[in-house]
Amino acid sequence: MMGRDDILVGIGGDGGISDAGTIYPNVGGYLPLIDQGITTVGDCRYRKAVPLEGGGRLDIDTNWGIRRSFLPQVFHSGIPITLVPLDATNTIPVNEEFFYAFQQHQSTFEAEYCFKSLKMARDTWSDDQFHASYFMWDSFTSGVAISGMRNDKDCLHGNDFAELEYMNITVITSNEPYGIYDGSNPLFDGHAVPKFGLKKGGVHSGHVQTGIVDSFCIIEGSRKGRCEDGYTKEISGLEAVRVRVATKAKSNVDKNSRLDREFFKSFLEVLTLRDNTGRFDITAQFPFYREVLYKPNFVNKSRGKVTIFDMDMSAGDFVSLIYLLKAPVEEIDLKGIFVSGNGWANAATIDIVYDILHMMGRDDIPVGRGTSTALGTGILGCKYVSAIPQGSGGLLDSDTLYGLARSLPRSPRRYTAENSVEHGAPRNTGNPELRQPLAFEVWQSVKKQLDPSEKITILTNGPLTNLANIVLSDRNASSVIKSVYVVGGHIRDENDSNGNVFTVPSNRYAEFNLFLDPLAAKVVLESTMDITLIPLSSQRKASSFQTLLESLEYAENTPESSFVLHLLSLLHDLQQKHRLYHHMGIFLGELLGAVYLVEGSNMEHSLLLKPISIIADNTTSTDGQVVVNEQSANLVKVLEDFDSDEYYSRVANHLGNMERSAVIGSFTEQRASWSRQPDNLRVR
């Protein structure tokens, strides 16, 4: 937008820190230093203080949904420190005078984008104290930095926006008493020699807060805790570092101005400067940009199984979704989609689901957002999902569909933080009709549409959180569910084969989908519903990249088959070249569920009834494991075997079928249509 495609953008690496404290050059930025190992897998000790959903990471990842609707589309120590602490940013709240002045200063694309973001933050604020509670955190810090660099390299001439003074400070990393090793401090616990050469009994050797609720930190009868992790403290002595600190925002030198801070005036002036201004937003980038919803006409067509697809938005799930959308509506009537945020992708990846539906001409299908934490783990935790790498081969790649998400056509539908009083929000936002529905609401909508003779078939490709929540919340759910196909679980065989939770070596026999929410798996799989389990052993028989890629190359070419071929070729290439991608076969095997649901009656296969139970006892080394228990009354059908050669052929032919093919095949095709006048508007 700003015409600066020359600026490089770096991300955290996939390296880490050894047990001995050696910091490798490609260390990532995904975990706090105290928890950083040699991978990007780890607990969220401090990050769990940030909400996952509304007002938290979901809204920040999407900028409240404004990013997709506004921004243009692109492909593509010993250092002097100035600290701008909370004490300083607390002196520059976004008061009403500044807010309304900003509303009048939107003459550039960047000003408009920033104001839209600020307004959405205000409209979704949890109470009526926004103007007293929301501060100019990062933008004020940027202003202080720019002023410091502009005025004087040595900062002898002060700062335009903040009062500065030198202080001797330290950052608290552990809590007294020091030298008492209680299992909370990975820098010392289990190490004969502390990491980074730290001193035993020193200020870093005390208790480290383990989470939001830590009994060590709680003072009985007090609302104030005793832990000070991360606290910036002014001290004297050898532990102190001399740092220049911003103490407060400067008042506006113009006493007649409605804006009471000097930075407010500069902020609005700079954002509306015509020099170095933004080139365009998405609507100005393309002369004939338009948002069109594609919906099929099923009039006079009989309908097949009423189906809901529950996905955690892994790469394999998107291939499965395309496969389901290619099925004749007379066989599979896909009525809704659930997405979970506690699997292989963050909740904001829901936008890619909308893009796939748009590509395939199915903007009629509602998508419901599920919860972002496992059943029984609290809304701020990361138990189980912390086993998924945050960097390469994990969330980073899933959230971008391995860099291919931008090649998909953009859907007019997208996640947005828009909300309404009707759905429990403190106030209506500007466009409450655009509100993102929840998974339970989509469930209720699909259930309401059922004819008396109809029931719902559910295919789950991720953790069973959404389905478990529905079963627990809707007493009548089981009575309208015809059958459930669960892609997941690992049943130990005579070869004693391992599961696939490769980041938790102590848990040999769990499979990821069940491990990510063991309690939900127990609720669903030990219920009375008609369940078909597609276990890891069967998925592994459908995980040959080479065979499927060869089949796709020989099949007919459609936009969707080309996209799948591109995606799977990329996964295969990464698997062969980089150790961080050794597990890509997991995602290829997930496609088996969709294929079996659509083609099961035509495939040569064998099912066995097995009495199973699920381990969910809050023990990471065993949670999510499937146990064949002859004493159990819970019988599930297990897909034991199928003709794999026939399977690969069916997948390729199905994706290459010209019927029910993509309505708009790629962003390149969409961009071309936005660059020319629509036929119905041309002068004849």
The CATH H-level homologous superfamily of the largest domain = Ribonucleoside hydrolase-like
DSSP, total strands: 13
Largest sheet: 9 strands, mixed
Radius of gyration, in Å, reads: 27 Å
Q: Give average pLDDT, whole number.
A: 91
- Poorly predicted regions are none
Overall number of structural domains: 3
CATH C-level class of the largest domain is Alpha Beta
CATH topology of the largest domain: Inosine-uridine Nucleoside N-ribohydrolase, Chain A
Number of helices: 24
Which class best fits the helix and strand makeup?
alpha/beta
Walk across the major sheet and give the strand order. 7-6-5-8-9-10-13-11-12
Amount of beta strand: 5-15%
How far the N terminus sits from the C terminus, by CA atoms, comes to: 35 Å
Shape: globular
How would you characterize the overall build of this protein?
- With 684 residues, this protein is of the alpha/beta class.
- The protein folds into 3 domains: 1-40, no CATH class; 44-282, no CATH class; 305-671, Ribonucleoside hydrolase-like (Inosine-uridine Nucleoside N-ribohydrolase, Chain A).
- Helix content is 30%, strand content 12%.
- The protein has 24 helices and 13 strands.
- The longest helix is centred in the last third of the chain and has 19 residues, at 559-577.
- The chain is globular, with a radius of gyration of 27 Å.
- The model has no long low-confidence stretch (mean pLDDT 91).
